[in-house]
Amino acid sequence: MNFTSIQIEFMKSLGLVIDFKNNLTDDELDKIEDVVAEKLQISGFDQKYEITSVGLMCESILDQLS
């Protein structure tokens, strides 16, 4: 995975403690997916169900994982 520095900082802000410089294990990738998907559900959309900047960041990370 080649996450951007902004994506990595965002994931760290979600509490993910992962060494993003090394190859990620399947368990680490699963953890990223779980944490980012949960953040997307909680903060990814506003009251009008329009995507927020947090949602856009989450989607960009999840897109890379798929």
Content-based structural category: mainly alpha
Helix coverage percent of residues? 55-70%
Task: Provide the gyration radius in Å.
Answer: 12 Å
Largest sheet: none
Distance between the termini: 11 Å
Give your account of this protein's structure.
- It contains three helices and no strands.
- By secondary structure, the protein is mainly α.
- It has one domain (5-65).
- Helix 2 (26-43) runs antiparallel to helix 3 (53-65).
- The N and C termini lie close together (11 Å).
- The mean pLDDT is 96.
Compile the SSE list and pairings:
Elements: H1 5-13, H2 26-43, H3 53-65
Helix pairs in contact: 2-3
Keywords summarizing the entry:
66 residues; mainly alpha; elongated
Give a summary of the structure in a few sentences.
The chain is mainly alpha-helical and 66 residues long. The protein is built from three helices and no strands. The protein starts with a helix and ends with a helix.
